[in-house]
C-alpha cells in the first residue's frame, strides 16, 4: 500500500513540528543536539521534540522517550541513532504519521553490503509507511525562511541561491565562506545516500521554486541517469545551474563509492551533458563560490572586453594574462583615451593603456583621478566591464583606502557598465581584517569582490559564456 | 674609456655607504625617504647620506646638498629625482666614484621615444663614468644579510630564496605573503627597465651565490635572448629555478611594453625553453609562492602516490580529484590496511580507503587515532607522501585543534615519508586569525602549509616532476 504526497516538495520545507530522535542531555556529545540548537537560533516557530528513551530535558525542551509519546503531530523527524536502530525508528515514524525523515546516521550503502541491506530495509519501511526520506548519511535541510538549519552559524536571512549537495561537509564549505562573500540561500539540502528523495526530486523542486534564482549542486553521481538529464534540462531552462561534480578522476571516483556509494560515471559524458545543457561547471569549492558571487551580483556584461584598473605595472601585466587566459579580452584603448588619461594621471610610470596603472605605487587609493579614470574608461565603446584591483600591503590603513572604496562603489552606481573588484591582502591578520571589512562594504553596495584578478576573470567569463549560449552567440 | 668592475656582482650587495638622492625632510612625501627608513630598520651598518639641495636633517641623518658634498666615499646611490634631473645626478655619481646607482625614477623607455632617449643618455653617462646601474623604474636591492631594503616590513633574517623581478610591485606581492608562508630571502632584486645590469647578470650571480638555494624570477622579457638562455641553462644546472613570466597573452604582452618596455616574446618558444631547461613554471603570484614553499620545506617524495587524511567525505572526493588532476595518484590501500584502519576509526561514515576521512565531521581534530592513522598509512609500500587537510569551521577553537597540530608535526618528525598540510578557514576574521597562528606553528616545525588541497597538489607535483627530470624519469 504505497502512499505518496502530492507532487511538489514545498511541504518538506514547512514542517509544523520537528522531532530529533537520538537527542541526549549531554552537552554537545550527541549529534542530535547539533540539530536542535540551530532551530532555536533560527527561531523555528513550530514545536521541537527531542526523543530519547531516558527522558529529561535539553535546552529547555522536554525530552520524550519515543515518538509515540509526543502529544501532537510530527511532520519532520531528524534521526541520529546508531544505524542498527534506524529501522525501528523508521517504523515509529510511519506509525506516528511523520511526513519526512532526514537521517543523519551513516553506516549504510556507503559502507558495504550489510549497510546496503540495512538501507534497503529502511527505504522499504518508509515507503510502506508513507514517510519520505532524506539521506541516510546527510545533514538534511537548511531553509532560513522557515527556520530549518543544521549549523548554528548559518544566517537567518534568505537569499537567491538554492544548493543541493550529496556531501554535508561540502555544504559547510560553500555556505560558511559564501556568507562572507555576500551570498544568501533559499533552500539548502544535504541528501547523502538518497535512498528515497534524490537529486532529481530536489532539482525539479528548485527549478520551480520562485525563491531560488540560481541553483548550485555538489553531486558525486546519480542512480537514474535518464530522469536526472530530464530534471537538469528543465532546471537549466528555468535558471542558471552551476555544478561541482566530485569523482571526476580515477582516485576521486573510487572515493565517491565509499563516501555516498555513488558511481561517478564517465567524465567525458558528463562534460558533454553540461555543455549541451548550459550547466556552469565548477572544479572546486572556491570556484563554485566565485561563480555564485558573479551570478548573484554582476550585471551581465554585453561582451568580453574588460578594462583593468589597479596599482602596479607588473600586477597589471599578470592581471591581463589572467583575463585573456580566462577567455576575456584586454583591448587597447584609443590614442584619444590614452591622451585624456595622461591629463588625469600625469605621474611618470603610470601605464596609460589597458591595464591602467592607478594609483602609482606610493600614492593612496582613490581620489578624483580614480573616479575620472573609471568614468573615462567606462565611456569607451570597446570596453564592456571594469575590474578594479588592489592588494592591501603592510602599512595600508582604513584611512589610506577609504576614498578608493567609495569611488569604486560610486562608479558601480553611476556608470552604465558592470564594475567588479579584486581585493587581496598580504597575509597578515591586520590586513586580512581590513580586507574583510572592505569586502563587506563593497558587497553591501552590490559590487562583487574576488580574491584575485584571475579568479574574477574566470568566473566572469563563465557568466558571459552563459549569456552568450542563451542568446545563441559564441 | 670604459671601466668595468671585475666579473661577479657580489660587491653590489656590500656597499660601504649609501646616498639617497632626492630625499626630503617632508615626512613620507618623497619616494627617497621610502629608501632610507628600511635601511635604519634593517640596521644597515654603513653610512647613509640623504641628498637634497635644500639640506637639513632627515630621520636623524644630515642631508647633503649634492653628492660632491658627502665627506666619505659613496658605493651605492639610490636615485629618486624626477626623470629630467637623472642625467645630472648620474654625472655626479660618476664624478663621486659611485660604484652602483639604483634608479627608482620612472618615465624612461617604458613611456615612449623621449623616455628611450633619456634612458640611453643616462646609460651612456654611467658607462663612461664606470657606474653600474640597476633600473631605471625599479625598487633595487633587498638583501637582509647586509641590511639593504626598500620595504620597511621585509624581515631582517635571510633565507634560501633568491628572487629577481622586473616589477617592483610583484616583489612586494611575493615577499610579503611569502614571509607569512615561512619563506625567507637571500637576495631580491627589482631591476625594472634594465638599462645596464639585467636579468642575465643577476641570474648568473644567483646561480653561483652559495646563500641562494632556490631562484625565483618574475620576468616580462629579455633583450639578449642568447645570453639569457645561456644564463638560464647555467642556473638550472646549479639549483631549482622557478619563473613567473608576464605578458604571455596578447593583452598581457601589450601591457609589458608600457610597463618595462619589454618585448614579451613567443609563448610557445618560452614553454619549450622552460621544459628543456627544467624551469619550474608558475602562472600567478600565488602559485609562485606555493612552489617556493614546496621547494623550501618538502622533502622530495620518491613518487607520485599521495595519501589524503582529513575531515569530510566530500572534501576527500574533491581532494582526490584535485590531486589526480595535478598529476599525483591517490592509490587504493590494501584490504589489510583498510582492516587495520577500521580498528583505529570505528566510526560509521568514516572512509577507510584513500582519501581517509579523519576525523568524522563532529569530532575534534587529533588524538591517538590520527597519529595511528598517519603511521599506518606512512608504512604502506604504495604511498610516497601524506597530505593532511582541515578546514577551520565556525565553532573551532585553538583547543579543539591543538592536538591535531601536534600530531601532524609529530608525524612529520617521526615518519619516513614527507608530510604536508592543507589548512583553510571559513572566512571569518576569528578563524583566519586561528589559521594564521596554526600555519606559523606548522611552518616553524618545517611542515609546508597550503591554503587548499588543490594548490598543495599542484605545487608538490612540480617538485616531483623536477626531480623526475633530473633523475631521467618520466
Outline the structure in words.
The first copy, chain A, is an alpha/beta fold and 474 residues long. Chain A folds into three domains: 10-134, 3-Layer(aba) Sandwich (Rossmann fold); 157-297, Rossmann fold (3-Layer(aba) Sandwich), CATH 3.40.50; 306-470, Succinyl-CoA synthetase domains (Rossmann fold, 3-Layer(aba) Sandwich), CATH 3.40.50. The first copy, chain A, contains 15 helices and 18 strands. Chain A has helices at residues 31-41, 86-96, 113-129, 168-180, 199-208, 225-238, 250-260, 267-277, 285-297, 313-325, 335-344, 368-378, 398-414, 429-444, 453-470, and strands at 17-21, 47-51, 57-58, 61-62, 76-79, 100-103, 132-134, 140-142, 158-165, 185-190, 214-219, 241-245, 280-282, 306-310, 356-357, 385-392, 419-425, 449-450. A six-stranded mixed β-sheet of chain A has the order 8-10-9-11-12-13, sandwiched between helices. In chain A, strands 2-1-5-6-7 form a five-stranded parallel β-sheet, sandwiched between helices. In chain A, strands 15-14-16-17-18 form a five-stranded parallel β-sheet, with helices on both faces. In chain A, helix 3 (113-129) links the parallel strand 6 (100-103) and strand 7 (132-134). In chain A, helix 2 runs parallel beside helix 3 (113-129). Chain A is elongated and about 80 Å long. Residues 1-7 of chain A have low confidence and may be disordered.
Could you name the key traits of this structure?
homodimer; 474 residues; alpha/beta; Rossmann fold; 3 domains; 6-stranded mixed β-sheet; 18 strands; 17% strand; disordered N terminus
Amino acid at each position: 500500500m504505497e502512499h505518496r504526497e502530492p507532487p511538489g516538495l514545498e511541504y518538506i520545507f514547512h514542517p509544523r513540528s520537528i522531532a530529533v530522535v537520538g537527542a541526549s542531555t549531554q552537552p554537545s556529545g550527541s549529534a542530535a543536539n547539533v540539530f536542535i540548537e540551530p532551530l532555536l537560533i533560527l527561531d523555528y516557530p513550530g514545536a521541537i521534540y527531542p526523543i530519547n528513551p531516558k527522558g529529561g530535558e535539553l535546552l529547555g525542551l522536554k525530552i520524550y522517550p519515543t515518538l509515540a509519546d509526543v502529544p501532537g503531530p510530527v511532520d519532520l523527524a531528524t534521526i541520529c541513532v546508531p544505524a542498527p536502530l534506524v529501522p525501528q525508528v523508521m517504523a515509529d515514524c510511519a506509525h506516528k504519521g511523520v511526513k519526512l525523515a532526514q537521517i543523519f546516521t551513516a553506516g549504510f550503502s556507503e559502507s558495504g553490503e550489510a549497510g546496503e541491506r540495512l538501507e534497503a530495509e529502511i527505504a522499504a519501511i518508509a515507503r510502506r509507511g508513507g514517510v519520505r526520506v532524506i539521506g541516510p548519511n546527510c545533514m538534511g535541510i537548511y531553509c532560513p525562511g522557515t527556520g530549518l538549519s543544521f549549523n548554528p552559524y548559518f544566517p537567518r536571512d534568505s537569499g537567491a541561491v538554492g544548493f543541493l549537495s550529496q556531501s554535508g561537509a561540502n555544504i559547510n564549505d560553500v555556505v560558511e565562506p559564501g556568507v562572507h562573500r555576500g551570498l544568501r540561500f533559499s533552500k539548502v539540502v544535504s541528501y547523502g545516500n538518497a535512498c528515497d528523495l534524490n537529486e532529481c526530486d530536489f532539482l525539479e523542486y528548485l527549478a520551480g521554486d520562485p525563491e531560488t534564482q540560481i541553483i548550485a549542486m555538489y553531486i558525486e553521481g546519480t542512480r537514474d541517469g535518464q530522469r536526472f538529464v530530464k530534471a537538469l534540462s528543465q532546471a537549466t531552462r528555468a535558471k542558471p545551474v552551476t555544478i561541482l561534480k566530485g569523482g571526476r578522476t580515477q582516485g576521486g571516483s573510487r572515493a565517491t563509492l565509499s563516501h555516498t556509494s555513488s558511481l561517478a560515471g564517465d567524465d567525458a559524458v558528463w562534460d558533454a551533458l553540461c555543455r549541451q545543457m548550459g550547466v556552469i561547471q565548477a572544479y572546486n569549492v572556491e570556484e563554485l563560490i566565485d561563480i555564485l558571487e558573479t551570478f548573484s551580483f554582476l550585471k551581465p556584461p554585453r561582451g568580453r572586453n574588460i578594462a583593468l584598473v589597479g596599482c602596479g605595472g607588473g600586477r597589471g601585466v599578470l592581471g591581463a594574462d589572467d583575463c585573456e587566459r580566462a577567455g576575456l579580452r584586454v583591448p587597447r584603448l584609443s590614442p584619444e583615451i590614452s591622451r585624456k588619461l595622461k591629463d588625469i594621471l600625469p605621474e611618470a610610470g603610470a601605464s596609460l593603456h589597458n591595464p591602467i596603472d592607478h594609483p602609482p605605487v606610493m600614492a593612496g587609493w582613490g581620489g578624483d583621478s580614480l573616479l575620472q579614470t573609471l568614468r573615462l574608461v567606462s565611456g569607451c565603446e570597446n570596453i564592456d566591464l571594469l575590474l578594479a584591483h588592489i592588494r592591501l600591503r603592510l602599512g595600508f590603513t582604513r584611512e589610506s583606502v577609504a576614498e578608493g572604496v567609495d569611488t569604486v562603489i560610486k562608479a558601480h552606481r553611476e556608470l552604465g557598465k558592470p564594475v567588479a573588484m579584486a581585493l587581496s591582502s598580504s597575509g597578515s591578520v591586520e590586513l586580512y581584517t581590513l580586507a574583510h571589512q572592505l569586502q563587506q562594504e563593497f558587497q553591501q553596495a552590490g559590487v562583487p569582490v574576488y580574491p584575485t584578478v584571475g579568479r574574477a576573470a574566470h568566473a566572469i567569463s563563465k557568466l558571459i559564456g552563459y549569456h552568450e549560449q542563451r542568446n545563441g552567440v559564441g
